[in-house]
Amino acid sequence: MDKNSITGFILIAAILFGFTFFQQRQSRKIMEEQAAIADSLAMLSPADTSSYAVAEPVDSQNVAAAQAIFKDACLDSAYRAESHIISIENDKLRLEIDTKGAQPHSAWVKGYFNHDGSDLYLFKGDGFEYNINVYTGEYISTKDFNFEVAYLDGKTAVLRLPFSNGAYIEQRYELQDGAYNVANKLSFVGMGSVIPRNVNAFDVDFNMTVPRMEKGYKNESQYSKLDYYFDGDKKPSEIGRGRSGSKRIDSKLSWFAFQQQFFSAIVEAPDSFASGELAVNFLSQDDPEHNLMDCSAKMRMDFKGGEKVEVPFNFYFGPNHFQTLKAYDKKYEKIIPLGGWLVGWFTRYVIIPLFNFLHRFIDNFGIIILLMTLVIKIVVMPFTNKSFISSARMAALRPEIEKINAKYPKPDDAMKKQQATMNLYKRAGVSPMGGCLPTLFTFPILWAMFRFFPASIELRQQSFLWCHDLSAYDSILDYGMRIPILGDHLSLFALLMAVTMWLYSKMTMAGQPTANDPNAASMRFMSMWMMPIMMFFICNNLSAALSYYYLLSQLFSIAQNFIIKKFFVNPDEILAKVRASEGKPMPKSKWQLRLEEAQKIQEAQRKQQGRR
Known about the structure:
Strand 3 (103-113) and strand 4 (119-124) form a beta hairpin. Helices cover 42% and strands 25% of the residues. The longest helix is centred in the N-terminal third of the chain and has 41 residues, at 3-43. Among the domains are: 73-337, Beta-galactosidase, Chain A, domain 5 (Distorted Sandwich); 345-462 and 544-580, no CATH class. The protein is built from 17 helices and 21 strands. 32% of the residues are buried. The strands form four sheets. Strands 7-8-9-10-19-16-15-12-13 form a nine-stranded antiparallel β-sheet, covered by helices on one side. Strands 6-5-11-18-17-14 form a six-stranded antiparallel β-sheet. The protein has a four-stranded antiparallel β-sheet with strand order 1-2-3-4, with no helix packed on it.
């Protein structure tokens, strides 16, 4: 180390020592002054000390933080500004907008009411969040800032968040007459020098708490979900139906919907969302705030940059009405659960048009359901008649079946007994499958009705007889407590439906040729007891319109079966035909030939086992 280096180190050490000594003297002097002031104040009377206070040490960092939170002075001012609520509305919707974040504050859907009679809000207060996260030299979230109202009239609102250089972020909301759609345009104006050029995306957060609006929690939650749609798909995908879940989306998404049973908040991006994460969380039935579910969509949007960038969105805040949603031509109507391709096709092109046609002339929805049931029964009558006639003819053969059972009582003679039975059916001109295939044809109709009634907003809060809301369960007895599976009430429509199902099963099973066959006991038990009981437990918590339709359908079937047996099937003629054909060779069907072949194989296997 040379002489100059040594001299430099000595000088640095001397400077540090001198500065430390000076600081200590200054600190001691300040402490002595504060002690003197304190002693002086102690000598004063309490009345005199009210005008004096000892100065506390000042934290310079806290002072700086209190002076400026954001680098941009305009942002800092907008952060501290007081917010207020503005509104736009038309004949369908009133949308309140909070200037804090320029985001929807409440959505009142006019003409609809909650189950308790209060005005229906899709969300209210803190129930909705629409937040933009973007980097402007520092990360900002628009929900933290108070926007300035640049323009406001009855149906249009324009709000701006200014920056110091004259740039601003703008949110524009516009309503049209007779529509539930809100056109939203997010604009970045003059932000080319604020948002760095390497920023190619920004995030948009949508959060919504959906309140409970219907009578029954179980029914409402089962038909509530989160839908999302990829452009070009036949229908949207979904998360929910009473179960919490989430989904990561790594491709472009056209729109998503926070869907309650009868109302939805749909957000569509004409330029598509780049990616995102969707989630729905169902709340308990005992939620103190009386909310149904929390929905969130954390989406990412592509950002191309420039002096003026416009990003359009479309919001739909309204009912899940099929024709209303379909009019937007965005596949919105696909969120209504109408079943798979076959059942959905039948519902869209048969059930809904018939329902709307009858509603043009009739206001009572109970009468409409009655007429719909009658029309459907008449349309399928050619098929169901074949089923009932086949069942009635087989019932007429019961004496002959009992003779065959007596002739082949042993289990080893099962194949012979079955072959003799099929030969009897052949001589009587009865097809054992004649009663099954026509019945299978009616299953899609029953399933279509199962999907249609609980999702039909037209039935919401429509009364009929003792039922006050056909879209929810009817209750003639409230238990005051929840019973597992059954619920906290008793539905009269569901009970009557189960009773008529039991009567219909008893009528059909009593006339079957296997009524006294022990092997058919389990089938009789399932048909007469298990099915009615299961349907009662299922329908007790579902739409009263559904139970009412099944009740009418069973009553019509009972009447149809009775008329056919009474006037169209003569048991004596069938038995006479059978006895006249005794001893005569009958052509064998392919099914009989296969049955005989199976019998021969079975006999051969039995003989081989006997030898072993």
